[in-house]
Design goal:
Layout lengths: L5 H7 L9 H12 L4 H11 L3 H8 L13 H4 L30 H6 L4 H9 L2 H11 L10 H10 L6 E5 L9 H8 L1 H15 L3 E7 L3 H16 L15 E7 L7 H10 L22 E5 H13 L1 H5 L9 E8 L5 E6 L4 H8 L11 E4 L5 E4 L9 H6 L8 E5 L5 H15 L5 H18 L7 H15 L3 H6 L1 H9 L1 H9 L9 H4 L1
Parallel strand pairs: 1-2, 1-4, 2-3, 5-9
Antiparallel strand pairs: 5-6, 7-8, 7-9
Helix pairs in contact: 3-4, 7-11, 7-14, 8-9, 8-11, 10-12, 11-14, 18-19, 18-22, 19-20, 20-22, 22-23
Bound molecules: iron/sulfur cluster.
Length: 516
């Protein structure tokens, strides 16, 4: 183990002055040593003038600062469907409109396709209230938490505070799935424009953008896009010669925030452990540094300039009565074509797999579609006509989660899959609340036992009971949704659980007992 030279560490930490710089300081130390050595804690605390306990609690919380990085279980065990980075949709609808057709490193290329026109329109001819009402009538809902964006803007615009913030999180929630990475690297300006319009609508003067450090290309292009936007007068003081001032800061960090990102991103930016707080009715109350804050996923922000330019009706023509617009998905697994796709909300799973994905690969047979990663669930053949929209998925016990749709063939074991997904949550949750912490651990213990041929008669009922309790009592959506893979596999593939428990047999030949 390399010993720490205080002089060298002080050089590494140069310019980092307060607790708001804690994450940056930890990242710099990790970049130098490969992890955060215990001896560095006191030196960081001294340099930033914060308590050692504070530095220790944050350093030990995030995976990326630990001495031994957490293994990406899903990727390691081969269940995550690594999705090709090609765009499958022929018609580039809303969010993917510029991906592949502009030069993301050249602002003029973005401007030539209408980039920053919506910002200009908003700043020069619309009041914040008008903007919010346009977004409200388009039906745009925040793509993760599902609340109406326009309604949230109206209430934030009315809040009186000396400072307000806009926060965007652009993490992908599943290893092997890189929707946000592709969006940010392919079209950074549309994201910035969406954040700028949101800031104007609620009266914010500062925006933060959280992005995983490992998205290096996207990070580089975002920094370049910010520089170019500042040079053109789209950021900084008196935007586009109006009285509106705005700054956007990028904060890169760990890929997984240990609780749902829309909640964890606020303490992360504040330099704290990403533990959730009880904050009804909106997960972002109280906001960043206790101030009114609009928090949204990258996909949500990409839709905003498009709606302002094309009008709310153009957006609401896509989708279902309850879920308007489009959804970006990552299609993978045993389909002929895998990649990133944007579809109208409500397209059926069958259309996605057979019309866009080209059907099942020749040597395979459809067994299930695993939707949404660790917080999603599995649907069987008889539910192939399910509309892909939040409401219809929720009725079947799952959600869009990470946005992945992985097609599974006959060689997949549903008990093993549920175990891997719960294990993923176990490795990444924050453990702050008992229902989440104990529920995930108990589910994982049962699934491990069942997969080893040691399942007990009552295990299926116990899984269902624990899953229901987690849904009712967990503090945030991360563990509430962690039961989805278990509940849906128990519901739709119960015979597989019964074969493991009663016959000590894994029908797919995947679990350890089959290899004995
Ligand atoms: S549900 Fe509880 S344990 Fe799970 S991530 Fe949220 S706060 Fe942490």
């Amino acid at each position: 183990m390399e010993s720490i030279d205080p002089g060298k560490l002080n050089t590494i930490l140069k310019g980092q002055k307060g607790e708001q710089d804690l994450i940056t300081a930890l990242r710099r130390v990790r970049a130098e040593y490969g992890y955060v050595p215990p001896e560095a804690i006191a030196l960081i605390a001294k340099a930033l003038r914060v308590a050692q306990s504070r530095v220790y609690s944050v350093a030990t919380f995030y995976d990326e600062f630990r001495a031994q990085p957490v293994v990406e279980q899903m990727a390691k065990q081969g269940s995550a469907g690594r999705v090709d980075e090609q765009i499958l949709t022929k018609e580039k609808m809303v969010v993917l409109r510029n991906i592949g057709s502009i030069n993301p490193e050249d602002i003029d290329s973005s401007i030539a396709t209408g980039g920053y026109d919506a910002l200009k329109k908003a700043l020069t001819s619309m009041s914040p209230g008008e903007l919010a009402r346009v977004i409200l009538s388009s039906g745009l809902k925040e793509r993760d938490s599902g609340f109406p964006v326009g309604g949230r803007w109206l209430s934030l615009a009315e809040a009186s505070a000396e400072k307000k913030y806009v926060v965007c999180y652009a993490s992908d929630k599943e290893p092997g799935i890189s929707i946000n990475e592709i969006l940010l690297a392919g079209d950074p300006h549309s994201l910035l424009e969406g954040m700028m319009i949101a800031a104007y609508a609620i009266g914010a003067s500062e925006c933060y953008l959280y992005i995983p450090s490992e998205f290096t290309l996207a990070l580089r292009r975002l920094e370049l896009a910010l520089k170019q936007a500042r040079e053109r007068g789209f950021l900084g003081s008196k935007l586009m010669s109006t009285s509106f001032n705005l700054n956007i800061e990028v904060r890169d960090g760990p890929r997984f925030l240990s609780c749902e990102p829309e909640i964890g991103v606020i303490p992360f930016i504040e330099g704290n452990r990403a533990s959730p707080r009880i904050s009804p009715p909106f997960p972002q109350n109280p906001g960043l540094w206790g101030k009114p804050t609009f928090v949204g996923s990258a996909e949500t922000f990409y839709s905003i300039p498009w709606i302002i330019q094309k009008g709310p009706d153009a957006f609401s023509q896509y989708g279902t009565e309850s879920d308007r617009g489009t959804k970006v998905l990552a299609l993978g697994g045993k389909v002929s074509h895998t990649g990133i796709v944007e579809v109208p909300m409500g397209m059926s799973l069958r259309q996605l797999i057979f019309n866009i994905g080209g059907g099942i690969k020749e040597e395979h047979k459809f067994k299930a579609a695993h939707i949404g990663g660790p917080s999603g669930g599995c649907l069987p053949m008889n539910l192939l006509d399910t509309p892909l929209a939040p409401r219809s998925l929720a009725e079947l016990g799952l959600d869009f989660g990470s946005g992945s749709v992985i097609v599974l063939g006959g060689d997949a074991c549903m008990v093993d899959l549920a175990k891997i997904l719960v294990h993923f949550t176990f490795e990444h949750y924050c453990g702050a609340c008992a229902p989440g912490r104990l529920g995930v651990k108990q589910m994982l213990d049962i699934l491990t036992r069942v997969s080893q041929g040691e399942g007990k008669e009552e295990d299926i009922q116990r899984l269902e009971r624990i899953g229901s309790l987690m849904k009712e009592a967990s503090l945030c959506a991360m563990c509430r949704a962690a039961s989805n893979p278990v509940m849906t596999t128990v519901r739709y593939f119960r015979d597989e659980y019964e074969a493991h428990i009663h016959e000590k047999r894994c029908p797919a030949g995947v679990c350890p007992m089959s290899q004995a």
